[in-house]
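Most newcomers find our protein records easier to grasp once they have seen one. To make this concrete, we reproduce a full record directly below:

…
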Amino acid sequence: MSIANKKAIFFDLDHTLWDFEKNSALAFEVLLPKYNIAIKPADFLTHYVPANANYWKLYRDGLITQQQLRYGRLKDVFTALNYNISDYLLADLSDDYIRLLPTNNHLFEGAVELLEYLKPKYSLHIITNGFHEVQALKMKSANIDHYFETVTNSENAGFKKPHPSIFEYALTAANVERCDSIMIGDCIEADVQGALNCGLDAIYFNEHSLEAHPSIIQVNHLLELKNLL
């Protein structure tokens, strides 16, 4: 795979540029006391992080709806903690979380420096499975929306990563050829393999240094991308 002479870069948003775990933790630190839920945020997050990842995989695979994702990931946490909560309170908490989450604006270290470096050299774009309204607020709150020419999400494309059609949609929206483009993301299945299966080159943002096939180009820190692009 050659990553030379590219013209367009497509980024995933959550867990790649926008620090979902940190911003999510901040939201729950506010919301659990607000709803008088007697659970320490750290204990809550111990269960929420894997539950959220699991529900996003189910959503990505088309096995659950957006609403089931938003409800189920929270319900499973309270069940695991043996904490009784009414469906009414759970619904309110879920809605409040979706409202509060995108107002937090923590990015991964080096994100802005990287975007400043890339912007004069490439057209920059987003491909995300996240929901349009929430993702737009995240980018605006973090003041990175102006770096990107297009934002493709699963709602406007009608498909979720790793389906080839969302990448096709993004390429058309950006008016670029796949041979001139590269995808960068944190999820091997959705971002990297999804892009490769569609004929796009890809770089794996492997923050946690997970085991990956040696043929996959990867970085552990965003600023390492400056040495590749």
Summary: The chain has two domains: 8-19+107-227, 20-103. The chain has a mean pLDDT of 95. The beta strands are 8-11, 123-128, 150-153, 181-185, 201-205, 218-219. Residues 41-60 form the longest helix (20 residues).
